Amino acid sequence: MTKGSLRENTHRRALGRDTICPEVRRSCVSARCLNDGPENPTELVKQLVALYSQAMAQSSQPSRSPTAGLLFGLVLTLAAVLLFAYYMTSQLAGLRTLQSNMVDRNRKDSLQLLRVQNDLNSIALAMRDMLDAREPYPLTAWTAQFERIREDLDAALKIEDSFAPAQRTAEQRTYLNQSLAQFWDATERMFALAANGKEKEARDQIQVTLQARQAALSTAVSRLLIQNNEGEEQATAEITKIYDRVQRQLYLFLGAALLVIVLTSLYLILANKKIFAQLEALSAQRSELAQKLISTQESTLRHLSRELHDEFGQVLTAIGSLLTRAGNPASAGETGSGGQANADNSKLRDDLKEVQEITQSTLTKVRGLSQALHPVLLDEAGLEATLDWYIPTVERQTGLAVHYEKSGKTFPVEAGAGVHLYRVVQESLNNISRHAQTSEAWVRLNYAARELILEVEDHGKGLRPDKGQHGIGMVAMRERAELIGGSLEYEKPEAGGTRVRLRVAREKVEAHGG
Asked: At what angle do helices 211-306 and 41-59 cross, to 10 degrees?
């Protein structure tokens, strides 16, 4: 290469900055990097990463949390439960008081009134026998019986007075006591007449006075019994009313509690639906930005690779040619000059040769770096040729024994899709060499009838995505799979380790980037 051609290439390189990689420009426009942005391609990636981080920060801002509404519903439910519990307690206490004060007292009072009624009936039977002329006994013979009945009546009335219901009036008590006192006064006069031998007058008093007073007392006690029965019926009706009211309130409470639960559940469902919608939108945005980042990264790496291979490679090649040409005059001068000149020319020739070797080594490293950034074979020869070159390179660099297997009827893979397939293989083998702790790996490329299946497998420690090992490389592999419409799976082989399987439909591979 001449000096004129070197200057021409340098001038072409300076003029071709905006035309050498249109993909980078398109990606920069999508990332708000206009043509007046930085000319360094790595700055484009940095700006896109910054844009991605900013979008994630804005999308992840917390929205209104449903916690306050749920806490309010919980407090409302607890308050309703406490109020209903208080209401039930008060109603049961009132019911207990009603049963104790009315029903039980009425029953005990009625028992004593029945005792009084029984004593009055015994007096009536005794007076009937006293009026019977066939009785051989004198009237005074019944004195002891009347005394026993009187004592029992007094005891029954005393107990009955302590159990008398609240609706019993003072007039009723006074009437009963006065009537009973008058009856016993008349009884004493009757026995006094009988004791004085006036049997006929005594019987007349029994028939005229005592029987009438006994009937009046029986009627008064019967009225009290009827009144107690009526009070018990009222108490029973009141108890029934309380039970009905409590039952109705219970149904109302259950309905209100159910309504609160339904409203709280609906609020929770709507809140979760909104949160999941936001998460879905955030995930879609994250995926879109990640895919843009990957596309821009590939464009940038392709640009840098071409720059290194075409421009810097040509420059270093030109330098090597110039050094070779510069060494030729030194060789010619050595053959036609004296000893001192020969020594100087030999030293110059050695220096030029050393510089030439350094230049050639630099050229080799630049070309190797260019291939590492973006293999030119991907664009020129396709995926298969690139893997045929890359796998021996990995074996030489990492010491892994990589078993490469191809199966099925091959078909051409589109260059854009081939880049992502190559990156998945590259990242998988890199993970195996770093983390799997094994010396063997398997790469399988299966050309099926309707899909392309790529597998990278190891039998070592392997990657464990289920244990939380989700690195950036694994995320990038999944995003690359989505970019070409495929699916990425992680499996554990029977021999252990990890199997990474990428499936993509054949039409997606052939049509992608077309």
From this structure: 170
CA distance 159 to 176: 14
Assess contact for 168 and 183: CB atoms under 8 A: no
Give residue-wise pLDDT tens across range 201-214.
988 888 888 899 99
Q: Distance (Å, rounded) from C-alpha 323 to C-alpha 354?
A: 10
Are 461 and 500 within 8 A, CB to CB?
A: no
Fold of 375-511: Heat Shock Protein 90 (3.30.565)
- Hey, what CATH class is 67-267 in? mainly alpha
Residues 6+ apart with CB under 8 A from 31: 44, 47, 48, 51, 292, 296
Q: State which amino acid sits at residue 390.
A: Y
> pTM (2 decimals)?
0.47
Strands lying side by side in the sheet with 498-505: 401-408, 440-447, 451-458, 498-505, 487-491
Domains 67-267 and 375-511 fall in the same CATH topology: no
Retrieve residue 11's tokens.
């001038």
Rounded distance, CA 372 to CA 390, Å? 9
Rounded to whole angstroms, the Cα distance separating 456 from 440 reads 11
| Tokens linked to 304 | 């840098």
- Give tens-digit pLDDT for 115-140: 999 999 999 998 888 888 777 788 88
Q: Could you give the count of Cα atoms lying within 13 Å of 507 in the half-sphere of its Cβ?
A: 0
Q: Are 303 and 18 in contact (CB under 8 A)?
A: no
Domain spans of the chain? 3-61+290-371, 67-267, 375-511
Q: State how far the Cα of 366 lies from the Cα of 306, in Å rounded to an integer.
A: 11
- Does an H or E element contain 451, and which? strand 451-458
